Amino acid sequence: MIVYINLNSIHHGFTSKLNNYEYSSYLGLISNKVTLLQREEVIQLFEDRENFKYTLESKKMEFDEKLKLLTLE
């Protein structure tokens, strides 16, 4: 669900990069700024911050590849 929520803005065409959409929780989760998000709990689900970013980037690349295939058909 966390991956889906953070990639939703890309899926719906609001942005093409994870860190460009100001209304996404992604920036709050990867930063050290004060937030109301339960950052540590979310990051722990992915082991650490780098793995969280890697997981989302990987899923974004999968989405991009599927989209490319659909547009070629």
User: Which strand-content bin applies to the residues?
Assistant: under 5%
Following the backbone from N to C, one meets helices and strands in this order, namely HHHH
Structural class: mainly alpha
Shape: globular
Chain-averaged pLDDT = 90
Helix content bin = 55-70%
Could you characterize the architecture of this molecule?
The protein is an all-alpha fold and 73 residues long. It has one domain. Helix content is 63%, strand content 0%. The chain is built from 4 helices and no strands. It has helices spanning 2-11, 26-30, 39-45, 49-72. The longest helix is centred in the C-terminal third of the chain and has 24 residues, at 49-72. The N and C termini lie far apart (29 Å).
Summary, kept brief:
63% of the residues lie in helices and 0% in strands. With 73 residues, it is mostly helical.
What are the salient characteristics of this protein?
73 residues; mainly alpha; 4 helices
